[in-house]
Amino acid sequence: MIRLFVPNDLAAGAGVMPAPEQGRYLTAVMRLTVGAEVLLFNGRDGEWRATLAEVGKRLCRLAVTTQVRPQQAGPDLELVVALVKRGRLETIIEKAAELGARRVRLVTTRRTNADRVNLPRLDAIAIEAAEQTGRLDVPEIVAPEKLDRVLDGWDAARRLMFCDEAGGVPPALDALRDSPPGPWATLIGPEGGFDPAEAERLRGLAFVTSVSLGPRILRADTAAIAAMTLWQAALGDWRG
Ligand code: SAH
Q: Does domain 77-235 have CATH number 3.40.1280.10?
């Protein structure tokens, strides 16, 4: 069944007017007619069944009926990722949503060579991925900040898995298996890698666990997917 993310509060009897492009998708693309059912979620109220109640020229209205699933929090994993070229960044956002990241924090580092992002487009990618993947929330995409600032304000209760391409650090899976669950983030550098001073600072921070993703240098998008996968397998909701 079609799943749509909406900002509205969801409760039995509520009426929801989908955004014009969602309405077009339902009625013009998917050709739903009055009485058809869809699923709605908003990141707060769980997942709800809704019926297409009215179809107008420009807008349509959905009537919320019954709750299908209550809201549940997914694992607390953040992805902190240096800006990379647009196509790769968009892949990273889509995969972070699929792999269950709760938030993506974009950072600039000394070797970052991109500095502008289209946040509304990244949000739209995150929403679309969340809709198709069945999750009950949409990852928040946080506008770019300087890595040093992010580290200055870091909440020490959250562990940071630093993916260090320089090597000489334990394999990620070994390091994660020996680590406590709880809030985590994983950090992926830009295509140019971390500058030695940045890497040095990271290695010295008490909340950081430095890890290797194997003997090959991965592109940032591959590294992000690999790191989130390993975390989900070792500490997240891929465990049995
Ligand atoms: N140009 C850099 C590589 C950057 S790859 C170089 O040649 O050294 C982009 C990011 O992906 C890195 O900063 C790191 O966070 C991550 N990464 C890639 N391969 C990795 C590996 N084998 N182990 C750990 N992290 C890796």
A: yes
Query: What average pLDDT score do residues 182-208 get?
Result: 97
pLDDT of 240 strictly over 80: no
- For the CA of 211, the closest atom of ligand 1 is 24
- Residue whose C-alpha is closest to residue 76's, from 161, 193, 162: 161
Distance CA 3, CA 1 (A): 6
Residue to mutate, 165, 176, 203, 219, ligand 1, most ligand atoms under 8 Å from C-beta: 165
Please report, for the chain, the start and end positions of each structural domain, with discontinuous segments joined by +.
3-69, 77-235
Looking at domain 3-69, which of 3.20.140.10, 3.40.50.300, 2.40.240.20, 3.40.190.10 is its CATH number? 2.40.240.20
Q: What span, in angstroms and rounded, lies between the C-alpha atoms of 62 and 41?
A: 13
Q: Confidence class of residue 12 from pLDDT cuts 50, 70 and 90?
A: very high
Its pTM stands at 0.95
Distance (Å) from CA 223 to ligand 1 centroid: 7
**How far does the centroid of ligand 1 lie from the alpha carbon of residue 4, in Å?**
36
